[in-house]
Amino acid sequence: MSDPAGSLEDELRAVVTDAHLLTDPSVVASYETDWTGRFHGRARCVVRPVDTGQVAGVLTAAAREKAGVSIQGGNTGLVGGSVPADGTILLSTARLTSLEPVDVVAGQVTVGAGVTLSALQRHVRPAGFDFGVDFAARESCTLGGMVATNAGGERVLRYGTTRSQVLGVEAVLADGSVISRLGGLPKDNTGYDVASLLAGSEGTLGVLTRLRLRLVPLLTGRAVALVAVDDTAGALTLVRHVRDRLASLEAAELFFADGLALVRGATGMSDPFPEPHPAYVVLECAGRTEPLDDLLEALAACEAVRDATVATDVRGRHTLWAYRESHTESINAAGVPVKLDVAVPLTSLPAVVADLPATIAGASPTARMILFGHVNEGNLHVNVLDAGRDAEAVTDAVLRLVASHGGSISAEHGIGRAKRPWLSLSRSTAEIAMMRAIRYGLDPAGRLNPGVLFDPA
Ligand code: FAD
Ligand code: 2HG
Ligand code: ZN
Question: Where are the domains of the chain?
Fold first, then answer.
């Protein structure tokens, strides 16, 4: 840090006002640990800018003083990317909460990067629209964090990942300059696609401040099924069967008996079926009319189904979803997990699921694995409890298994700090060199989100 003590803080105070420069260690501490409790960092201070102009002011002052800046949205990220690098300014997007009117002609909306997913849903639904990405962290995660990590979630099967929903961005680069492309033209081939480039960049290329988002029709006819199957192969048979018959299929989520037991223990929920089963799939269909009859017909004709329960009313649907969506919180209630979010080709999925227990036991005899995921994308959430000092060995063993099947070491949550040493398992030397050239071309000293995605400069 090159500034004489206090001068950078004075500059920041002038930009965001006294109330939004936080320096009291007990207040700053609430920004310094991630959602899982596994990652920590020490911020120099926290700034809470209210608009793009203030973000630009913060980054200009930081650039002048050669100070690092870490970026935090809802702090629900699961790879340690949202905690500050030691000694950096922590820029919180919590006050970037503008919600512009829904553009009903284009089916688009422009929102601040600090808007939470649930606030966006509440904003667009009365206008007959919905957002194409949804998942359990909706009350806290922000659109900026979702774009920065290219979040996936439960509707990728129908609508794709967050990147597919972003038509434009406003962002501030490390030197304080602003790029603003919020016109929302669905067709625009005038060179590099800045929105796509920033999606998934994990805050290493710029601070997202506003987003132009594509919306999807609000579909109120909904049916959810919780289906018992024998194993992963059975789950795949079921999903293919329903997906190939019903265009209304929106979600297909897999979990196993030990995950159900953990969730039931943590939540007190009852057993969904009279008999236990090895594996379960949550399916959701959505349309302008209720898709229940079509779903029941498809389930009745599928050889993989061992039992099923369905719901169309809001409460019943939420209850069935809770068996799946409560996994993350239930795991955290049991301890600090090693979290891996891998994807493999669907043809490899049964083999990888079968190999994981021995792979993990080989790295950590004490470890306990809870597995679940977004089955149609081959995306497995490998959660490992009680790994103790073997966390790195477990990570290494699982990621190498995945890579040996041509999979990705991160399907959803990003690289962050947690998976930085393993990036080369999924990306070639030439690709990493290209990514670094972009990152350090825009931010030569690597001051934005240092330690995320790449080693600190
Ligand atoms: P943060 O955690 O604050 O930040 C995440 C990363 O983005 C960090 O590197 C941060 O520096 C960067 N960042 C944040 N805001 C900005 C910005 N404005 N500009 C630039 N960089 C920024 N993820 C999925 O993909 N699918 C799921 O189904 C899913 N389910 C989840 C369920 C639970 C219960 C939880 C706790 C998390 C889940 N996640 C899931 C993780 C997911 O990554 C986040 O919930 C979300 O995408 C992060 O948003 P956030 O605002 O909390 O970002
Ligand atoms: C989900 O799909 C999230 O619920 C979180 O991506 C996964 O807790 C996890 O490992
Ligand atoms: Zn997920």
Answer: 7-95, 108-217, 221-328, 335-418
Supply the residue whose CA is at minimum distance from atom 1 of ligand 2. Answer: 153
Q: What is the pLDDT of residues 213-249, one digit of tens each?
A: 999 999 999 999 999 999 999 999 999 999 999 999 9
Report whether residue 326 contacts ligand 1, using a CB cutoff of 6 Å.
Answer: no
Nearest to 39 by CA among 396, 417, 413: 417
Sequence-distant (6+) residues with CB within 8 A of 129 are 102, 104, 107, 109, 215, 216, 217, 218
- The pTM of this model reads 0.98
Ligand 2 atom showing the smallest separation from residue 327 Cα: 8
Sign, Cα dihedral of 226, 230, 233, 237: negative
In this structure, the residue with its CA closest to atom 43 of ligand 1 is 77
Report residue 62 as tokens.
């930081």
Residue 106 Cα, ligand 2 centroid: separation in angstroms? 32
Q: Is the CB of 45 under 6 A from ligand 1?
A: no
Domains 108-217 and 221-328 alike in fold: no
